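Give me structure tokens for this 78-residue protein.
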Amino acid sequence: MKSQDSKYLVMLGNNIRDLRKSQNMSQEELAFKAEIDRSYIGGIERGERNVSFLTLVKLAKCLNCKITDFAKDIPNDK
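Here you go.
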């Protein structure tokens, strides 16, 4: 993966973290609700994981948001 591409994963992870924290939810609680390993949630939030669409769907359901909320402020500059 190109380093430029990884910046988008970091931005995605930051948005997911912000949404989770805005609901006073721990990584462990989100992981439990989404049926995802807690360490995987941490990897997503740090931009270390290229998360699948279906995982994004699970996270959006648990965070009561739209998937598009995860992409807030991520430019389409490719």
